[in-house]
Amino acid sequence: MLIPLLVVAILMLAAHEAGHVVLTRFLGGRWLGIEFKGIMVGVRLSVKSLSLKQIAWTLAAGPLSETYIVVLACLWRPHDAHWFLLLLGLEWVLNLTPWGLFPNDGTRLWRLWRKHALS
């Protein structure tokens, strides 16, 4: 069970970052490269030409892309679906909660919302 879970986790990571890149490029932004910070990996994007709503969607595209991988994993190994769904839930909690301690999608969405609410 550990190997399939690890494979799905790696595919989720790739889909997450690809989701950010694909939607940013589709909306007119630019991909500037891959960035590694310790054990964290991310993509550098230029979103200067995008509206606040478009930026919010590019942030949400990462976690939403992971869902696609988990659905495929559940179809691939239905008897392990509960592990894949747990992995998705944990990743969403870690990534979408605006911890403020590290630059996750939740923190960036929170700052974007505050910037919009204060302006």
UniProtKB/TrEMBL annotation:
<keyword id="KW-1133">Transmembrane helix</keyword>
<dbReference type="Pfam" id="PF13398">
    <property type="entry name" value="Peptidase_M50B"/>
</dbReference>
<dbReference type="InterPro" id="IPR049500">
    <property type="entry name" value="Peptidase_M50B-like"/>
</dbReference>
<keyword id="KW-0472">Membrane</keyword>
<feature type="transmembrane region" description="Helical">
    <location>
        <begin position="83"/>
        <end position="102"/>
    </location>
</feature>
<protein>
    <recommendedName>
        <fullName>Peptidase M50 domain-containing protein</fullName>
    </recommendedName>
</protein>
<keyword id="KW-0812">Transmembrane</keyword>
<feature type="transmembrane region" description="Helical">
    <location>
        <begin position="55"/>
        <end position="76"/>
    </location>
</feature>
